[in-house]
Amino acid sequence: MTNESEEELAGRAVVVLGRLTASGQRMVEDGLNTLFQRKGPLSYEALCGWEPDELRTLEKVIQGMELTEKYTPDIEALIETFKDMDLPSRVAFGSLDPDKKKEP
Q1: How far apart are CA 44 and CA 14, in angstroms?
Q2: Lowest CB count within 10 Å: 17, 38, 56, 96, which one?
């Protein structure tokens, strides 16, 4: 545990929150306000009244959201890319025998 002040932790949380998209910020606010039983926006002033452990949790959750937003593929764009390709429509499960030779 570090001896960071609530103000330092709140400031860091606000900076990380600002890197999320608007919808990501709303999701974090809605979810964490429910989790921590608090109402209102996650502003610096409001966060200064939170406990240090709550602020650390908030920062980690926001960082996770940021990673999710940054590295989640755009599924709709991927579907569009593959829609005209002749892809297999069947899936088979089983095991490969490494000693069996491939048939030509």
Answers
A1: 6
A2: 96
Token pair listed for 33: 């306000």
- Dist. CA 42–CA 22, nearest whole Å: 13
**Residue 15's closest CA among 58, 70, 50?**
58
Three-point CA angle 43, 60, 66, nearest 5°: 80
Both structure tokens of 30: 């809605």
* Beta carbons within 8 Å of 63's beta carbon, 6+ residues apart: 16
Q: Is the pTM higher than 0.85?
A: no
Amino acid in position 60: K
pLDDT digits (tens, 9 = 90+) for 12-70: 888 988 888 888 888 888 887 777 777 777 888 888 888 888 888 888 888 888 888 88
Interaxial angle between packed helices 6-18 and 52-71, expressed in degrees from 0 to 180 and rounded to the nearest 10: 20
Query: Which residue type is seen at 66?
Result: E
